[in-house]
């Protein structure tokens, strides 16, 4: 099956955002990071574990009626560094976006260090600096490299 | 030094450290002769965990500079007991004092509190995180005994949870130092500290056996291995026993080895060596006063104190 076939298996969208080349099994985390849980009324299509020529298997996320900002998309680099993003207008790709790691992510992850001040009921949002490999709590400095999605606070 | 707060040793440059140590040397000559430096300045002591040396030396330092302290007292007697957040406590205390010294059991507590206040805040220990003012007095003591460049230091004990170790290791990357870390496998330096040392290009080795490096050392910095880090008493005794210093240990070391310890010690240094010329830990503790005088003096200056 070609990538084209895969695209067709998930309905085309008229206007919105298509996030492709997401690592297989991470699509729900992508939605969580983007804060999409269906309550906003957007149409959402998911393809999970679909065959991919370049990745073996991959996930695809299509969000109808919403164009993601670069800042929103950059946090995806934590779990889907090779994702490609197409902004679609009137069924055609209007913009192709490369995602880049942000310097810092705020409020997205919870710190796995139970002795961190961000886990002590204080009125602060978590902040993590993004390293070449993994992320680092800006408060207790704990480095998280493995299973970052286990620590999603969203 | 132009910092608003002292949160970790990582923020200290070599020039910052040298400025503090130089001023500390000025104060050390006659600590009682500097009461004109900051008359009326008030330092708030917020210790959410017990402390003897750190708290008393900050209090002494503030008073020697002509200032005074206000003390939150024990957590049991404060609003914290009623569930007040650290952020609120910090904001309230900021209105009372010209500077805050904070010790707290949570890592990152000082950084968070500093985001809520405009007066200088000193991290006097945040859980297993950092203790940078201790580091300044450790550096002062090392400088007095062995000098800070072309130095070979062994840092031994609980490297994982030892905040004085984390801060000292960071600060030493500013100097020409070979750092040897000696600990059981389970108490190695945490990943975050190893990452920073690597990023700083530090000259670092890790060992489980002190004898592998003892003869090379100019300084041996010993820390306490705490019982509660081990699942049972037997395991603790077995491990702790391997990292004790006594007269027999010193026989295998250089004659001029300086043995340091941030104190309190339990039994990791045998009192039989207390009177030996190698024992520097009580001088080290006494150095807390001139060094903290220098630190407060510089922070209060930077904070715009008119005195």
Automatic annotation (TrEMBL), chain A:
Keywords: Metal-binding, Pyrimidine biosynthesis, Transferase, Zinc. GO terms for cellular component: aspartate carbamoyltransferase complex. Residues 8-99 form the Aspartate carbamoyltransferase regulatory subunit N-terminal domain. One of its GO terms (biological process) is pyrimidine nucleotide biosynthetic process. SUPFAM superfamilies: Aspartate carbamoyltransferase, Regulatory-chain, C-terminal domain (SSF57825), Aspartate carbamoyltransferase, Regulatory-chain, N-terminal domain (SSF54893). It holds the Pfam family PyrI. Zn(2+) binds at residues 111, 116, 137, 140. Belongs to the PyrI family. This is Aspartate carbamoyltransferase regulatory chain. It comes from Halarchaeum rubridurum.
Automatic annotation (TrEMBL), chain B:
This is Aspartate carbamoyltransferase. One of its GO terms (biological process) is 'de novo' UMP biosynthetic process. The gene is pyrB. Pathway: Pyrimidine metabolism; UMP biosynthesis via de novo pathway; (S)-dihydroorotate from bicarbonate: step 2/3. It catalyses: carbamoyl phosphate + L-aspartate = N-carbamoyl-L-aspartate + phosphate + H(+). Its EC number is 2.1.3.2. Residues 150-298 form the Aspartate/ornithine carbamoyltransferase Asp/Orn-binding domain. One of its GO terms (molecular function) is amino acid binding. Carbamoyl phosphate binds at residues 53-54, 103, 131, 134, 263-264. It comes from Halarchaeum rubridurum. InterPro entries: Asp/Orn_carbamoyltranf_P-bd (IPR006132), Asp/Orn_carbamoylTrfase (IPR006130), Asp/Orn_carbamoylTrfase_sf (IPR036901), Asp_carbamoyltransf (IPR002082), Asp_carbamoyltransf_Asp/Orn-bd (IPR006131). L-aspartate binds at residues 82, 163, 224. It is an enzyme of class 2 (transferase). Catalyzes the condensation of carbamoyl phosphate and aspartate to form carbamoyl aspartate and inorganic phosphate, the committed step in the de novo pyrimidine nucleotide biosynthesis pathway. Keywords: Pyrimidine biosynthesis, Transferase. PANTHER family: ASPARTATE CARBAMOYLTRANSFERASE, ORNITHINE CARBAMOYLTRANSFERASE, MITOCHONDRIAL. Residues 5-144 form the Aspartate/ornithine carbamoyltransferase carbamoyl-P binding domain. Heterooligomer of catalytic and regulatory chains. The keyword Transferase applies.
């Amino acid at each position: 099956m070609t990538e084209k076939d895969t695209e067709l298996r998930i309905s085309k969208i008229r206007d919105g955002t298509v996030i492709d080349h997401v690592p297989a099994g991470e699509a729900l985390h992508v939605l969580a990071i983007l804060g999409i849980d269906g309550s906003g009324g957007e149409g959402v299509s998911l393809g999970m574990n679909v065959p991919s020529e370049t990745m073996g298997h991959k996930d695809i996320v299509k969000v109808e009626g919403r164009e993601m900002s670069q800042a929103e998309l950059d946090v995806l680099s934590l779990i889907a560094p090779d994702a490609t993003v197409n902004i679609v207008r009137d069924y055609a790709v209007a913009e192709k976006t490369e995602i880049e790691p942000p310097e810092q992510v705020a409020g997205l992850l919870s710190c796995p260090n139970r002795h961190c001040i961000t886990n002590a009921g204080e009125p602060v949002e978590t902040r993590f600096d993004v390293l070449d490999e993994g992320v680092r709590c800006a408060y207790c400095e704990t480095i998280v490299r493995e299973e970052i999605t286990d620590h999603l606070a969203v | 030094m132009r910092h608003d707060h002292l949160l970790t040793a990582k923020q200290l440059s070599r020039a910052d450290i040298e400025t503090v140590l130089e001023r500390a040397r000025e104060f050390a000559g006659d600590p009682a002769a500097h009461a004109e430096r900051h008359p009326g300045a008030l330092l708030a002591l917020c210790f959410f965990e017990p402390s003897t040396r750190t708290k008393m030396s900050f209090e002494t330092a503030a008073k020697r500079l002509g200032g005074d302290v206000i003390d939150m007292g024990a957590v049991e007697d404060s609003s914290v007991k009623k569930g007040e957040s650290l952020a609120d406590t910090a904001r309230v205390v900021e209105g009372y004092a010209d500077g805050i010294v904070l010790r707290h059991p949570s890592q990152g507590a000082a950084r968070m509190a500093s985001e809520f206040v405009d007066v200088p805040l000193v991290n006097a220990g945040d859980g297993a995180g950092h203790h940078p003012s201790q580091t300044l007095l450790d550096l002062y003591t090392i400088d007095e005994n062995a000098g800070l460049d072309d130095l070979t230091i062994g840092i031994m004990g609980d490297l994982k949870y030892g905040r004085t170790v984390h801060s000292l290791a960071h600060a030493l990357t500013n100097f020409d130092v070979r750092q040897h870390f000696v600990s059981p496998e389970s108490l190695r330096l945490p990943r975050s500290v190893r990452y920073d040392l690597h990023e700083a290009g530090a000259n670092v080795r890790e060992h489980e056996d002190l004898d592998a490096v003892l003869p090379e050392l100019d300084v041996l910095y010993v820390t306490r291995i705490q019982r509660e880090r081990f699942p049972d008493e037997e395991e603790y005794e077995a491990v702790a026993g391997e990292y004790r210093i006594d007269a027999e240990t010193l026989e295998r070391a250089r004659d001029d080895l300086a043995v340091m310890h941030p104190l309190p010690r339990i039994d990791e240094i045998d009192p039989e060596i207390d009177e030996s010329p190698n024992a520097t830990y009580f001088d080290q503790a006494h150095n807390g006063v001139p060094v903290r005088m220098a630190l407060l003096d510089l922070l209060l200056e930077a904070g715009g104190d008119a005195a």
